[in-house]
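S.,

As promised, the FE2/S2 (inorganic) cluster run. Input:
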Amino acid sequence: MLVEPGQKAKIKVKVNGVLHEVEVEPRKLLVDFLREDLNLTGSKVGCDTSTCGACTVLVDGKSVKSCTMLAVQADGKEIVTIEGLSSDSKLSPIQQAFKDNFALQCGFCTAGMIVQTHYILSERKEITEEEARDLIHGNICRCTGYQNIINAIMDASRRMRQ
Ligand code: FES
Ligand code: FES
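Predicted complex:
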């Protein structure tokens, strides 16, 4: 996509099932586009350097840290954010498992943790605790000590198999 200096780029992107045809600054990060242009503020910016995972979203079904991608690179793609994981104001099984297992404190990492868990459990039906720890290594939590998050992932995995 070639854009003249000072011009915006036209993109078409589906976010949580809704098609958006919009103009964006070529340098705008996907996370900033989601938060500022679409008002989807569930994804958080914890570092802006691909370290914390608080900005994790699904891009064409794959887990992506949305601070590592430009909004223009999402042209033609389908994005799911934390807001797209629940329906009719009802928590998804993963969200419910995080709630029931007290897997959050300040909540800053939680959207990223839940989206990453959604990705992990969409790829595999069963998971061991060791695998769960490995698969969330890109998501950092500074409050919980991780055990309750692991408990929530294992619980969500059980709920989704029932
Ligand atoms: S804000 Fe994207 S990884 Fe931290
Ligand atoms: S709950 Fe605070 S950073 Fe994870």
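The chain has a mean pLDDT of 95. The radius of gyration is 16 Å.

- D.
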